[in-house]
Please model this.
Amino acid sequence: MPLLEEKVKQEVQEFLKGLKDPVKLVVFTQDSLLTAPGMECQTCRDNRKLIEEVAALSDKLNIEVYDFVKDKETIDKYGIKNIPCTIIQSDTDYGIRIYGLPAGYEFATLLNAIKIVSNKDSELNNDTKEKLKEINKPIHIQVFITLTCPYCPNAASMAHKFALENANITADVINAQEFPQLAQRYNVFAVPKIVINETVQFEGALPENNFLQKILEAH
Model:
């Protein structure tokens, strides 16, 4: 049974007509029958199916699928520590990642990531772009979300936009409910919660300039 209803498919197909350049959706999953203790992936199958259904709606979308156990070389290349994980990239890996099933409100995060990567346009204002040029060392943004949080897609997409704009920035969107160990580690009691370089933490979907100031603070 398809995960996307026919009406949703039509809406997504219309949205994807605006894509300019090809986008590669790289899915890390658990197809192997061999699983490490504690690594059973409850949403891997649905995540792969969802990404496949989205990819089928546009000839600009391609999908690659890798198994967390069997494809160790590729896992190491991308630095993947948890699954399911979906990377949205073109020929360039911009550091845009979604950990967990992008359903509910987070379906918009997936679509927005596809759009900015395809159009190679972060949609950030010019002042922000100029200030981001100051970033000359690694910045790792983690945005903890839940699928029922209406404010989370704004924070998640903002982080992805920053990653697109500067090669030193990577942005992970993480479903706190699917990865409770990480949520506990970073004391996630409300979402969205953003952690930057392990040193700067805040909650809420901040406006672009305020989010930028947090990145510069971490830098």
Observations:
- The domain at 6-218 is CATH 3.40.30.80 (Glutaredoxin).
- The CA atoms of residues 18 and 115 lie 8 Å apart.
- The mean pLDDT is 95.
- The two ends are 46 Å apart (CA to CA).
